[in-house]
Design a protein that fits this description.
Bound molecules: citrulline
Number of domains: 1
CATH superfamily: L-arginine/glycine Amidinotransferase, Chain A
Number of strands: 15
Largest sheet: 3 strands, mixed
CATH class: Alpha Beta
CATH topology: L-arginine/glycine Amidinotransferase, Chain A
Oligomer: single chain
Number of helices: 6
Distance between the termini: 8 Å
Helix content: 10-25%
Order of helices and strands: EHEEEHEEEHEHEEEEEHEHE
Shape: globular
Length: 253
Amino acid sequence: MFSKAIVRTPAKSMVDGITTAGLGKPDYELALEQHRNYIQALESCGLAVTVLEADERYPDAQFVEDVALLLPRCAIMTRPGAESRRGEVVKVSALLDDYYDKVDTIQAPGTADAGDIMMVGEHCYIGLSERTNHEGAAQITGFLESAGYSGSMISISEALHLKSSVSYLENNRLVVTGELCVAAEFADFDQISIPESEGYATNCVWINDRVLVAQGYPQSIEKIRATGLEIIELDVSEFCKLDGGLSCLSLRF
Ligand code: CIR
């Protein structure tokens, strides 16, 4: 169960965030509204939400998930793969002293975005992607093992991050799309497979037996609803334009 979340208000500069989506620039006011709704949804799941202020220097800082991995027994600050995002860690790191005795940090030449890390029980799957390199993943595995967790690496090539293509909904349930539907690592899960036409909906978020799902993906929503979990649909169209999904918008711990 989670009790807390950290989010970061988008800066006006978000319109210049990194993107490959080809969906045009986000509408800033609409993004702020969607972000407020997202915070409300986290609160409705019982989380106490800390909202970090916007910082115009960082157009992608609302995707706060990427800068840290927060587990019950360890906290790791990442070293984001995109250089323009490296400074985002400072504000989040400062906050973590309130919650953790010790915070580990990935060192160069390691890089990692925590959007590439999916926790399943006491194990973390770490995607090797354009953002997370082998050195970064190896450092994460070391930190995890020191805290009594385990980690394993999985190469991805189709999506930005591992969790763009797979989400864990507890009780062995895995929402999965594309190349990861046939990944040997995930063969023993109860798979909820998402058609590639709705691939964006794969990034959904389990919070205390509710699931945040992106609005506008009817087949996916039906399949996820069939788990019996309560669904909260959220419109995140403006973040989709920057390749960001629902999980990226918060750190939950
Ligand atoms: C980026 O390219 O870094 C941002 N525009 C999107 C990050 C999305 N984060 C995530 O999937 N965890």
